[in-house]
Amino acid sequence: MKITKLTTALASAALAVSAPVAAELTTDQRAAVERVLESYETALNAQDTESILGLYTKDGVFMPQHSLPQEGIDAIRAAYTGVFQAITLDIDFIVDEIEPLSNDWAYARTRSEGSVTINATGDVASEANQELFLLNRQEDGSWKIARYIFSTTNPPRN
Amino acid sequence: MKITKLTTALASAALAVSAPVAAELTTDQRAAVERVLESYETALNAQDTESILGLYTKDGVFMPQHSLPQEGIDAIRAAYTGVFQAITLDIDFIVDEIEPLSNDWAYARTRSEGSVTINATGDVASEANQELFLLNRQEDGSWKIARYIFSTTNPPRN
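^ Those are the sequences you sent over. The predicted structure of the assembly is below.
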């Protein structure tokens, strides 16, 4: 096992753990995460790269299948631009879990189903994926996607 | 967007957020997470399902590509048993990030590279994946895999 990069943020992150919040705040937290997922679904189906970028943290990482991890907002922009040139999605997200990890972190585990159109040919195929989102609360109180990975749940094509 | 299951654990999880720990504890925390990843790599290459199961929480979720999410230790056992009947892996993990999310949660972002042997035919192919692990500290202080998803970083086969 090789370790390419180790954060030095561990100590400061531990110190930044804040006091427990009231239960009604965590209801807001969950609702805010749901809104991020809904916005992502809408922007993905609309081929709306700029709206998607607004949902990511500046140092976010997008981990699309068949690609190395795309680190940082510029790499993420290029990746979605490439995706939307190649395919058009019409999918619905199903939320299996939204769980808090701390006052400032949460994860969402989802699946998505629908169709994908290959833009070059017009061919339409069924699309089914599973997703794991790590979300981070920003200083302004908004939640953004910090890490996001998906993989197909369809059987192999060959 | 459909929401199939929403945890009611939000309030209790928020209340369970504990006090900041000393910096030297977070160094231990990182080392402990590294050991989990090393143990996973070793067990994966050894086809050792029982050792892998010992690295997961009882309610863990394994999200293998080409499969729906496998929820809970029994489903996880069946999934790895199936994987090891089909293929033999010889891969190395590369750790890109290990980051704390709270005193009891951390994530690891990794890649893995090596070869996969199709047991039925003996055919060997190159294997390259990216992974996101969510790890949860247990009451005994050990860290376990709570959520784990990977996807290939190789180009599509067709």
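The longest helix of chain A spans residues 23-45. Chain A touches chain B through 69 residues (CB under 8 Å).

Shout if you want it in another format.
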